[in-house]
Amino acid sequence: MKITFFGATREVTGSCNLLEGKQTRILVDCGMFQGCNLCDVKNFVTFPFDPSTVDALIITHAHLDHVGRIPKLVKEGFRGKIYATPPTVELAKIVLQDAFHIMKEDNEREQRPLLYEEKDIDLAFENFVPLDYSHDLEVGEFTIRLRDAGHIFGSSFVEIHSSNGKSVAFSGDLGNDGARVLRQTAQLSAVDTLVIESTYGNRIHEDESARASKLKEIILRTVKHKGVLVIPAFAIERTQQILYEMNAMVEHGVLPPIDTYLDSPMAIKATRVMKKYPQYYDAEALRTISTGDDLFDFPGLRLTETRSESILINDAPQPKIIIAGSGMMNGGRIQHHLRRYLSSKNNSLLIIGYQAEGTLGHDLYEGKKVVTVLRDRIHVKAHVESIGAYSAHADQRKLLRWVETAQAKPKQIYCTHGDEGAAVALATNFKEQLDIPAEAPKFGQTVEL
């Protein structure tokens, strides 16, 4: 039994791990590389394994860096079943269709090649099979179980037991403590080997209790200066977290009603999916909806699905709040709003998610004063703020605690899904604090279990 790491090795994106037994090959995630200068090239490289020989694909959650190359996998010959939780199946389709739409626009505007065709998406979804938490699935000599990761809606970590007695878990992405609507990350069972994410493997998030007060402070400042608050948000989870907290503050009179535009067709669709599956909510969210309250709606909220509706936001009076994608600001409607509003000191940009190196979001997060948006040079005068506690990823403290409180300590840990500094730092902490052998594997590295 062995694992080969084909993505998210000493970088955050491109998750793709191949588990091989005596007779069975299982792929865990098949994500797109994002952010880096070579990412486009890396996405087009032929898979370094034969997709037609893979028996099954397990998807931990519906973020593009975990699902983005599934249609390419199908294009290159994969015909196995694809397993994910029911919400993940629906959300993945939204994400992949949106990604293809962006690819088509890039192809028409700049003649950039398509990574796959729409028919490859359709063929992939013919083979998707919903698998709920804690239901055992037999694939060859492997028994597979999904557990709640608490990262985004429907997210999971994967525990796999072999008939030879060996076991491994893949964390996928683990959630941050204090997330609204989501349940807490489930306890890790006793496994021999753990492959764990390390996005924030060298960082500690700010206290979640200060999150809502900081959001309130930024919104009230926007209202006072009759400005515009622009929030680039990932369509799945981060957007709904913001809507949930704004709903609570507006309905309890903490904030005045303020025109708020959810300018993201994908986020609007994702929110509808979340409303379909209340059985995935935490206890607080269930109590709220039992009173008849809509978790993600409040006075002043407007949904702008069409392009013409989006353009009309320009003419809306200030103050106003605009929530739009993409979360790292490298594409999507957010770029039009940044070009329009970054140059005014009365406006604010609120960053609430991870910003990969090489993205516009990373430049703004690092305080760059002149940026290029849609080919225009923009002098940044708006306030650039960030709230780390909105991150959907566990920080170093949570990652260590999750492993420490497992039913039994793993015998070996591999730290992936983090830049080199974060992955190596987390591995060092596992060794020094928990006395568990750990390393940050390299691309293409194979380890025997």
TrEMBL record:
A Pfam family the protein falls into: RMMBL
CDD domains: TTHA0252-CPSF-like_MBL-fold
Domain called Beta-Casp: residue spans: 239-364
Keywords, comma-separated and alphabetical: Hydrolase
SMART domains registered for this protein in UniProt: Beta-Casp, Lactamase_B
InterPro entries given in the database record: Beta_Casp (IPR022712), MBL (IPR050698), Metallo-B-lactamas (IPR001279), RibonucZ/Hydroxyglut_hydro (IPR036866), RMMBL (IPR011108)
Taxonomy of the source species: Bacteria, Candidatus Uhriibacteriota
Protein name: MBL fold hydrolase
Residues in Metallo-beta-lactamase domain copies: 13-234
Hydrolase found in the keyword field: yes
Source organism, top-level taxon: Bacteria
Gene Ontology MF annotations: hydrolase activity; RNA endonuclease activity
